[in-house]
Write a structure and sequence with these properties.
This protein has 12 helices and 22 strands. The protein is α+β, with helices and mostly antiparallel strands and about 475 residues long. Strands 1, 2, 9, 10, 11, 12, 19 and 20 form an 8-stranded mixed β-sheet that branches. Strand 19 and strand 20 form a beta hairpin.
Length: about 475
């Protein structure tokens, strides 16, 4: 019997787990995939929005602004990459100025600090590569960029360090009311709990509707992206948006915290909640519309494309709270943009709700800090030489594009909630995220995984499940 079971190990589930781990309670997280950060949290714009876009008074507005304020402190506590690079929303003609002014006014009402409307000359001085057709822009200095993998993994590792249990490859299939709370049937058996937190992303409506007569409906909204090499990373320094439309903030152009250039996403509603395939039409739209905001985007530097799904709820706002007719069932549903920016505040809100309902006492030994994987590239030459002398694995480069060492990969595998697949290593170390997209380093990374996890090469997967990388009949030769 658990006090709280959280369904989903994405960024919101991990944030709630981390905040709940401040209190004396028996908590676990159930995740159907093989690792944290395998759904919406792994494929998004990685933007920490300032908070001017959401409707004033909505949960999106309140939690976006609070989450943005918390992100810098959280990055220091949990050691993940975050940068306040600022954002610009471009207005391309004078007729649209009322819409830009409305966005400014909404941001002020939402509590966003330091907003300014810039004229054409100020915009071009700040970002010389934006379109010459720019008329004005809304400048938000508090906006930022983050590593979504690093954020998600850091939250989960810290929750684990504070006693939260994680069960992977464990899919919830049914939820039933029980005498003391809820019984969750999974493909690995039944789990019982007093409280359930539903942080299941695009599947959150399915679980809510199992226990409540007041139904919700989530649409999977697919977005295509193109990622460019680090040679293109300085093409813009701020995150560049077009004025928002009815389907969201449109195509953005942004640097990433790791020095790449990212453009996207599209917004296409799909029936398939696993439909993360890119389309030629979607990628062409990304390239075309990005070019309307920023000139001379070096599209020949695209190194990969991908798509992610946003969980759009029909009410167009976050749903966070206890279901009216299902006591003890806490929804964290409809978390689309600005979900990444809001997750620190979502974690606080859900954890405080459960704390107050259960009367949980605060721990005296809560561990607030977490140390990420040591990166030799951030050290001085003297420090790096000392590290290699202590552990020669840090002198063995495995991924040449990102300069990732064997020591970092071993750390990624051995640390709490460590990597078990090629993608797990990639999200923790960036091995395979460079220009060659793991063409060089994949076999060497697989060798390290096989050795460290005592696995056959035939059992190593790209991302869990059936995504095996080596197939054949003569396993003794591998």
């Amino acid at each position: 019997m658990y006090d709280v079971i959280i369904i989903g190990a994405g960024v919101c589930g991990a944030a709630i787990a981390r905040e709940l781990s401040r209190y004396q309670a028996k908590i676990c997280v159930l995740e159907k995939e093989e690792d944290v950060c395998c759904g919406t949290s792994k494929a998004n714009s990685a933007i920490v929005h300032a908070g001017y876009d959401a409707v004033t008074g909505s949960l999106k507005a309140k939690l976006n602004v609070r989450g943005n304020e918390r992100m810098g402190e959280l990055a220091k506590e949990l050691d993940f990459p975050f940068e306040r690079n600022g954002s610009l929303v471009l207005c391309l003609n004078e007729d649209d100025m009322p819409n830009l002014q409305a966005l400014y006014d909404r941001g002020v009402a939402n509590g966003v600090r330091e907003l300014r409307i810039l004229n054409r000359e100020e915009v071009l001085e700040m970002e010389p590569n934006v379109t010459e057709n720019v008329y004005a822009a809304l400048y938000a200095p508090t906006a930022g960029i983050v590593c979504p993998f690093g954020l998600n993994i850091a939250l989960a590792e810290n929750a684990y360090a504070n006693g939260v249990e994680f069960y992977f490859n464990t899919e919830v299939t049914e939820i039933h009311k029980s005498e003391e709370g809820y019984a969750l049937q999974t493909d690995k058996g039944t789990f019982e709990t007093k409280y359930v937190v539903n942080a299941a992303g695009v599947y959150a409506d399915r679980f809510h509707n199992m226990v409540s007569e007041k139904k919700i409906h989530i649409t999977a909204r697919r977005g295509d992206y193109c990622l460019m090499d680090k040679e293109a990373g300085n093409h813009v320094h701020k995150t560049i948006f077009a004025l928002p439309g009815k389907l969201g903030k449109g195509i953005l152009v942004t640097p990433t915290v790791h020095g790449n250039l990212l453009i996207g996403p599209t917004a296409v509603d799909v029936e398939d909640k696993e439909g993360i395939n890119t389309t030629a039409e979607g990628l062409a739209q990304v390239l075309e519309k990005a070019g309307m905001s920023v000139r001379n985007i070096p599209t020949r530097q695209v190194i990969t494309s991908f798509a992610g799904l946003r969980a759009h709820e029909d009410g167009d706002d976050f749903i966070i709270g206890e279901a009216e007719d299902a006591p003890g069932f806490i929804d964290c549903a409809g978390i689309e943009s600005p979900g990444i920016a809001s997750c620190p505040a979502i974690g606080e809100m859900a954890a405080e709700l459960i704390r107050d309902k259960m009367g949980l006492a605060e721990k005296t030994d809560f561990i607030a800090n977490r140390q990420g994987i040591k990166n030799p590239n951030t050290l001085s030459m003297e420090e790096r030489n000392a590290l290699i002398k202590e552990n020669p694995a840090y002198g063995n480069i495995i991924c040449r594009c990102e300069m990732v060492t064997e020591g970092e990969i071993i750390d990624a595998i051995r640390r709490p909630l460590g990597a078990k697949s090629l993608d797990g290593v990639k999200r923790r170390t960036r091995a395979g995220m460079g220009r060659c997209q793991s063409g060089f380093c994949a076999p060497r990374t697989m060798e390290i995984l096989a050795r460290e996890c005592d696995m056959s090469m035939f059992d190593i997967t790209k991302s869990g499940g059936d995504s095996k990388l080596v197939v054949g009949t003569n396993k003794d030769t591998v």
